[in-house]
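User: Hi! I'm working on a homework problem where we have to compare a predicted structure to a textbook description. Could you give me the structure for the chain below?
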Amino acid sequence: MTTPAPPPGSPAGSTSDSSSRPVRTGASTPTAPGGERSSAIETRSLDWVPTAERHGKVWLQGPFWFLGNFQPFTVAIGLIGPAVGLSLGWTATAGIAGILFGTFFMAFHATQGARLGLPQMIQSRAQFGYSGVLVPLIGSLVTFVAFNIVDTVIIGEGLQGIFGWNPVLVGVVISLIATVLAIYGHDWLHTTFKVLFWISLPFWVILTIGVLTGAAGGSPAAADGGYNTTGFIIMFTAAASYNITYAPYVSDYSRYLPEDTAPVKIIASVFWGAAASPAWLIPLGAWFATSLGVSDALVGIHDAGNAVFPSLGSILAVLAVLALVATMGLNAYSGMLSLITAIDAVRPVPRTRGVRIAGILVLAVVWTVVGVGLSDASEALNTALLVMLYLLAPWTAVNLVDYFFVRRGHYAIADLFTPDGIYGRWGIRGLIAYAVGILAEIPFISVAGFYSGPTAEALGGVDLAVVVGLAVPGVLYLLLTRRLDVATERSAIAHSDELLADVDPAQ
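Assistant: Happy to help. Predicted structure tokens:
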């Protein structure tokens, strides 16, 4: 067996064995005694986070993911149900059921960050290989960029409708803010989300009380809709995709948690945070559509808030935009990690601030140029969510099955940073399961104006691709790994642990 490369976190170009392939890494973010961190730009990107730098607190994961969904993108999902013929009640039911379903899979990824101290897509090299991870990386990159494109459209159109602001100028300004947040990195994002959570919460509570008491105005629509199976599945799938498409993010923001953090605590904190805010705002969005007749989430927030008392709507619109801009920073940060991982799969990438910043800037240019050129947020929202779901559902199934049922959380971390390690350059089992999962989804896909598969047509337009995309690759990967002798990986894991201990001052 080839000796694995020295662990990420060791000095650039250093090696503990003459046969090892050096792993280039940047210096760690300075950590003062007592956990007080420097305000400098974060330097870690693909690196493993040593124990000495694990300063995160598990309870903060809840507010972090709550705020990540506490913005107009989430409200806009509630507009989908009435648009496909569902009543307020059925939209809320399908939306909440979809959110709970999608968050179940998303939350389990959070344990990987604390246990391994790695970005999500680096850990995926264990299933797909050092170079093979490029395949699912396409889906994650589409996710990050597409979310920011649609966010740019939502904010630009919303602020134009409310205040008459130029959407192009708005798109450029919010992209600059999101880019700065992403450049400063992990701790800045966590702090920004925490502050916005506590500032926003009381205003949203007041708005919701206003809706429940009738102070927010509105009246029941003449044709409030009802129930139809196709509409219910469309709403369920859109809501499920919302949090499933967060799956490639989760470990990126839990990798600074202590390694001994109880998995159940991480899962519970991420689950309640990521599920609670959509379960609140999706029905609110449906109410905007059915009672106010609005088709723009920000306009609905503004009008309903101002009906409760003057300026509440304007305050909420600004806070909602700030939350969405912070989430754009989240997308840019994780997008950068995926982009660098993809490049690193072809040729080694230095772990430097310059590389981090360059990756973020490239993505910022792409989403800004495309985002300010779009004009139909509702169509872009629905289609982008579904396409991202089709690409990511098979990946999340393979990744979770490998972590919880095949390797049970035990990995040779140093080997994830070299194609010569035990995971190799191409993970044939993972790639086969992923490809079969994508192919199995195709007959079940039903996206208006995009594609409708034969099985979906036979079912009257009902889209079951997400269920197939989770079940088929998950079961297939489990079957393909039946003969995988994980016991043979133990020596590599032990050697990797020794290498990590050598560069971790806390061990």
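For your comparison, note the following. The longest helix spans residues 312-344. The CA atoms of residues 93 and 283 lie 8 Å apart. Good luck with the assignment!
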